[in-house]
Structure of Glycine receptor subunit alpha-3:
Amino acid sequence: MKWTLFIVVILLVRIQPEVLAEQQLSRQDVLNHLLNTSRYDSSIAPNFEQDTATNVTIQLFVRSIHSIREISMDFSVDIFLRQKWTDPRLVFINMTDITRLELDQKLIDKVWVPDTIFTNEKEAAVHSITVPNKLMHLYQNGTVFYSARIGMTLSCHMELQKYPLDSQFCPFYMESYGYTTENLIFHWDTTKAMEITEVELPQFFIESDPYFDRCDKDYGEAGIFTCLEGGVLLRRNTGYYVIQVFVPSILIVILSWVSFWIDIDSTAARISLGVLTVLTMTTQSAGARSQLPRVSYVKAIDVWMATCLFFVFGALIEFAYANVTLRGKKKMNGAPTAVQGSSVSVSIVEYTIVELPLKNIYTCVRLKS
């Protein structure tokens, strides 16, 4: 009896694929068979029982790059994260002639997906208007294609020594959070690992092709985790700074030099112009640095503003020096004089002309001994 039951089971196992192939199951029947919880567990990696790593191919499609902020050193992107792997449990070659199955949003949750994370992510979300922006395709040979539209804010460490004539490299770091390299390995797509659409940034140019590489991490006792690194090199557009910073500061310096053509006796005019240009230059310098982090090193914009302030302040100091020198020369030219025929030194303090009724004019001089 036992041998008879064993033979029947073997025959059913061998005949089932042929029966399924002859029946040509519908899409719904194929999905019900593949995702049946009695034969498929979405919490277990595809090659877990074989004790081999699942190879996942990753491609990034960058739709937009925006909101690049120097003060918080981060940038925001909108991407399509595309992942592809093979799950032997989802093979349906002998079940139907359909080459690809497209899964609904609710069925996606029933399929195992890699636990991919972005390690330099500050905040992120999968777009959900009007439905969660996810798609999944199943192919006959068990290949799974999974894509999700994600909006993220990623940290980007910036070197601002040459600001605003600088270039910045903003990276993407992707790792598996729970699987070591024994169970999961990431690979870049060999055809096109990272694709960027025609992105137009207000303050940056994309200087070169995207960069991508491996960066596996060893976390000690936790193990070695798979990691991929990608990024873009952004060169700052200086047009804004030429119009808003460089040209106004040059004009302010030239304006401070106008005081050289103003009469040196016009003290009020020259002082007002000098103080006004110094205050304007200080205000503009503070405004140019308001959108930058408080770093401890000197930036190129600091050198420019300090030089302009030096010229403006120098024009004010020049007037002070010239005014003191001129007053000293006037004192030397107006030295005391002596009255002839007398040993008494006098200085003429003031004199007045008085017209008397007899029409004789007398000069009254008051002397001070």
Summary: The chain has two domains: 25-236, 239-325. Residues 256 and 315 are 6 Å apart (CA to CA). Residues 25-236 form a domain with the Acetylcholine Binding Protein; Chain: A, fold (CATH 2.70.170.10). Confidence is low (pLDDT under 50) at residues 15-22, 337-369.
